[in-house]
Write a structure and sequence with these properties.
The protein is mainly α. It contains 11 helices and 2 strands. It has a two-stranded antiparallel sheet with strand order 1-2.
Length: 240
């Protein structure tokens, strides 16, 4: 196991310890979708909650629960570990959105700090491993939407000059350039983060010399880059 992967495992173990203080509590919610047995399971010991039940809660809308933030907070270690290791079959965009809806940045400092450490360790491990357990776009989307910031992750990518990081760059470019999605790219399950201004600027400046792709020289992208650089919220010109 690489040192970066080991650092991620260490951060996940620390996440488990930080959240161990979250005690079981009576869970109430939509009795049409969840019976008494399921609600009792969610109110019991964390390690006895089935993987299927954890996945169900991770995908469910907050209105199904009387206290969604507390329930999601308690299940966070069971959601995040499989998510960042590629063993969770729930959309990464949805996980990021649900974390925001649970207001994770307002949780007690040890909990929020433990999550921040996982984001950083996961991103570093991803940039040093190709292929990675989770596709680069989904990883970037989750950490961006969850933290509300894209540029810090791009800056670390700029500073990471490894074959794995360059391979991920090529993968991301193939993804966002399909049908020129980069011209109006939103991240998050509800498209809450408009990534085009920052990501396009990064691709055409900091990252340009690391990938040989003629699509980045399209005149429309250059025009759009000039436009969003002047006025980030301005409408894009007509597409290619």
């Amino acid at each position: 196991m690489s040192s970066h992967r080991q650092h991620l495992m260490t951060a996940l173990d620390a996440l488990d310890r930080a959240f161990a203080r979250e005690e079981p509590f009576p869970v109430e919610g939509c009795t049409y979708c969840y019976g008494e047995r399921e609600l009792a399971e969610l109110a019991g010991p964390l390690h006895l909650i089935s993987d299927d039940m954890v996945s169900s809660v991770a995908q469910e809308v907050p209105s199904h629960w009387d206290d969604f933030p507390r329930l999601y907070r308690r299940l966070t270690p069971r959601i995040i570990r499989p998510a960042v290791t590629g063993a969770f079959h729930v959309d990464e965009n949805l996980i990021a959105t649900r974390l925001r809806e649970a207001s994770w940045t307002t949780w007690d400092k040890p909990l929020a700090d433990a999550l921040r450490d996982v984001w950083s360790a996961w991103w570093r491990a991803t940039l040093h491993t190709h292929p990675s357990p989770v596709r680069i776009r989904e990883t970037l989307s989750l950490v961006t939407v969850a933290t509300g910031a894209l540029r810090p992750w791009l800056d670390e990518w700029t500073a990471t000059r490894t074959p794995a990081a360059d391979a991920h760059l090529a993968d991301l470019l193939d993804d966002v350039m399909f049908e020129y999605e980069i011209t109006d790219l939103h991240l998050g399950f509800y498209n809450e983060y408009h990534a085009t201004p920052e990501l396009l600027d990064w691709l055409l400046t900091d990252a340009r010399g690391r990938v040989d792709d003629a699509r980045l020289d399209h005149p429309y992208l250059r025009e759009l880059h000039r436009e969003v650089s002047r006025r980030p919220d301005s409408p894009a010109p007509d597409g290619p």
